[in-house]
Structure formats: structure tokens, C-alpha cells
Please model this.
Amino acid sequence: MEISCIILMQLHITCDINSNRARCGFEFPVHSARWKIDPMASRLAARIAHALVLLLAVSVAGFALLRLMPGDFAEVLLMAQMDGTLPDASQVARFADTHGLNDPLPVQYLRWLGGLMQGDLGLSLVTREPIITDILLRIEQSLILAICALAVALLLAVPIGILCAIYPDSKIDRVAGIISVIGMSIPNFWYSLLLALLFSLALGWLPTGGHGTWQHAILPTLVIATSITGVLSRFVRSSLLEELSKPYIRTARAKGGRRRRVVLHHAIPNIVPGLLTFSGLQFARIFDGMIIVETLFAWPGIGRYLVESLLNRDYPAIQACFLLIAASYILVNLVVDITISVYDPRTREIV
Amino acid sequence: MLARSFVPKSVAHEKLTALLGRNGNMYASIVVSVMVAILILPFFAPHDPYQAQFLFRLQPPSLDYPLGTDAMGRCVFSRLLYGARLTTASAIIVVIASSLFGSLLGTVAAMIGGTPDRILMRFCEGISVFPALAISMIIAGVLGLGLNAVIIALIAIHWTDYARIVRNAVIVERAKPYVMAAEALGATHHRIARRHILPNIIGPLLTLGAYSMSWVILSFAGLSFLGLGVEPGTPEWGLMIAESRNYLRDYPRLVLAPGLTIAGFVIAVNLLGDALGDRFRLSQINYLH
Model:
């Protein structure tokens, strides 16, 4: 047990949270050589162990979150159960006793973690229903939005980035650069309002809010997608430019490969792993965008749930959202890393 | 001016070079003077930004009310000017506090090295790749909302960037011969950090400060817009947009004016960052938060 803990800790240190660097900074070959394990399998195991350690750290942070809030935890819980009337001290003491809130914090944490494993996120202070049912209903809506947004962003950004890299310092490149700088400077929420003003109020093409039909999804998707398109296209541009300056491209050109073929068949496949990692890191931006967009367009997703529970001071729900965000972030990066090692044999060899 | 401009190799600059040429100093001084002016701007407000006059609600722009009045009859122009003060002040507090804290920890980590350094860097990377807006919202919410809570939350998220950048810069500086010479002469860690290294990493620090300020302004407005920032009724740009949302169809100027102000302000601050980065000959640092 102790040894496995130490190994886990080492993994945690040797791996990098930033998976971009993880591929270069990974120090696992020593172990795999000693244990004679298939490098691919050991990399996978290391990556999953890393994710588990991170999840554990996140759960500690999530647990601490509820204890950090102002006021006595037992009192807040009891007050919510009693419709906001202030309970007296003896009631609070009895409540804390029966719910084990007087136990040492590690014991409380373990009990809470046990419940968490079984999907018990506690009861909402507002609706007094299990939070997990609310979350499950909303997670699907948020996923739809996130996946559509990422797909649209990639569909826009990759061709733009390629064009800019093929014709650097051309008009296309300059315009794209200026637009991406402006895009980074415009507040998301204002931009959504402008789109709503144009497409819903002035032209009347799309609904202003709600969900159900595909038309409801267009504006939210568009806002999130365009908010990351600028960054993504700049990334494609710079990594492709770097790739195009390498000797093998010159060789391919010297052997008579046409420009389009060299770019599409030689250079592009080599920027895909980096692009995948970068897209994974865009999860943070997408989620930040979702908070705004879901609130604005009345889309019933996790972002809106978070805002509502913050405004209602529904602490268990806030905690649940935090855990969900962190866990999905870890999951996304795990999936990205695994995809890359499947796609790119070099990363397997390095490990 | 444009004819004499040329395209430098720095990535940070090339985006705007096409438009602006290469007068980094000039732009820096312009933006600095704009920022200084902003602190005196409220004195030019024609009306009290808090005073609601229902007789004059939703007035069109006129000489008396340069940008008209909002749904409660408050002068939009005056509110924008006061909003500039509030936004600039909070953003500068966040930037200064997080840069002090972050660069202190970053310098210490780089000078000590070893396990403490690793742990701190893992922690910083961990925080800086999470959804920043979501996490700062949660921190602000748990602290009980309001202006102070928002400022603390933004600092709590933000210092990690400084810690990372400063730590890396210190490690690069430390390996240079002049620091080794100082070490050979018997200078203490403290003295080396203060007298030799800090003056040399002030460039990256200032540049990061400008970029991070634009991020802070946007987050601040976003949080206020969601109702998680300043108190209702405060002249704050994000909140002004939120309060005018229901008038979007008939009075789009109420939403356009604060939005354009935020965008202009952030672009100006980003330009300052580009100018500084150019001046200190930095390649692009991590400002794509």
C-alpha cells in the first residue's frame, strides 16, 4: 500500500499537468525498463494513475470548499431545512451530532468521499432534492453545446490557420490576425447580445433563448465557437509555419511534390497531435463561454446551474459543480493524451 | 508613418504591426496617459451617476445627456466615466496584488529549487489551466459575493501566472555569468534576487501585467454581468449591460455604449502589452489565458 502510494506520488511529480509538456518531460522509461512492461501499457497506466491522483486532490479541494464558507456548516444546513429560520444552539448541536459533523475532518472527508463514489452529491439547499438528478439532466445539454462548439471552431479555425500559414503576411493573414486580437478583447456576453440583437430581434431568424429545436442551439454554439476560433487558428498558423520551415518539407518540394500535396500530406499530419492537445486545453475557455452563453440564452446546462446555485447560495450544488468541472477537465485531458499516443507512434517510442 | 514601418520577427507584435507600425513607445505613453486620465475622468461627468430621475428615463442623446439616459433616468455617459474609475482601480489592485504575491513565490521557488519548486509549479499549472471564470466565480460565491470577494477571487486565480513566469525568468537569469560572479563574490541569495535578478526580469513582469490586466477587466465585467460581481446599481460596465438587456430591442445604444467602452479599453491595454513586449524584446508570452 505504502509503496504504491509512493509510486503514485512519483508519477504525479514526473508527469506534467500540462500535457503538452508531458510528452517531452515524461520520466517513465526507467520503470518500464525495469519491469519489462509494454511501454504503451505503462504509459497508459501512468497517465490513468496521474488522473486518479489529480481527482483525489480535487475531491479534497471540493470538500474543503464547503467548509470554507462563512458561518457554521451545521447551522447553514439546518437553516435551509427549517425554511430559513435561525435554529438555536441546542438544535444545531443535536443536528451536528446526528449527522456526524463533530467528527474529525478526515473521518468526515472519507465518509463524504464514500457517498460521492455512489453518486451521492447531497441535497440542494433550495429544492431539497438530490443534486445528482439535476446534474444528470443538465450535463447532456452542456455536452451537446460543448461538442458542437468545438466542432464548429475546428471547422473554421483549421482552414483559416492553414491559409494564413501558406500565405504569411498576406491580406488574409493580416485580417485574420486583427480579427483574432479584436475577438480576444470583446467581452463574450456583449458579443452574444449583439448576435441576439441581429439574428433574433432585427432579422427574426432565430429564437432568443430556450432549448428544444436545433435552432435554439445555433446562437449559443456560434458564440462559444467564435470565441475560441481566433486562438485556435493562430495556433494552427504558428505550428504549421514552424513545420513548413523544417528540412523534410524542403526535401519533399525538391522532389517535385506540389505545394498543396506537401502541405496536406506531409505537414498537416505532424501538427495534429499538438492541435489535439491545444483543443483539450481549450476546455477551460469553452466552459467559461458556456457559463455566459447558457445564462444568456436560457440553455439548461451546467454553466447556468452554477450561476443559479451561486446566486441562491446553494453551497452543496456549488460544490457539485466544482467537482464536475474539475473531473471533466481531468477526463478531457486524459482522453486527449490517450488519443495522441494512439495517433502518433513517436510519443509511444519516447515513453 | 506606415511607409517606414517594417515587419519585425516578434510574434507578439506582428498581429498589429500591419495596422500600427512600430512605435511601441508612443503607444505605451498614449495608453499610460489614458489610464492616468481615467482616474480624473469622473470629474468631467455632467451628472451624478447614481441619481435616478424617472422623469428623464430613456432620453435620446442630447447636449445635456451626451449618451442619453438609461431605464432609470441615469446619465449613461457619467456612469461610463465612473465605471472607468471602478474598473481601472479594481483591475490594478488585482494585478499589483497578484504580481507581488506571485513573483515573491516564484522567486523563492526558483532560488530554493528542488521539491518545493516542483510542488509549487504543479500547483500553479493546475490552477491556470482550469476554467478561470468558473473557479473565480466559485471562490467569490463561497466568500459571499460583492466587490471585495470578486477582487480576492481574481487574485487567488491570477497570481499563479506570475509565479510561473517569474520563476522561469529567474531560473534563466540565474544561469548567466554575472549572477555566478556575484555568487562567487559571496553575495547572499537575498541580495542576488533583489539587486541582480529582479531588475532584469522587470520586462516580462510588466508585459504580463498589461496582458493580465485585460483579462482581469474582462472577467470583472463578466462577473458583474452575471450578477456575481458588484452591488446592483453600481456604475460598472458589465452591470450596465446586464441592466439594459431588456431594452436591447428598442434601445440598443444602452447595450452598445458600455460594450464598446469595454472593448476599446481592453484593446488599448492589449496594445500596451504588445508595445511593452516589443520594447523588452520578448517573444509571445502566455497571455492567451
Summary: Chain B touches chain A through 49 residues (CB under 8 Å). The mean pLDDT of chain B is 79. Chain B has one domain: 85-287. The domain at 85-287 of chain B is CATH 1.10.3720.10 (MetI-like fold).
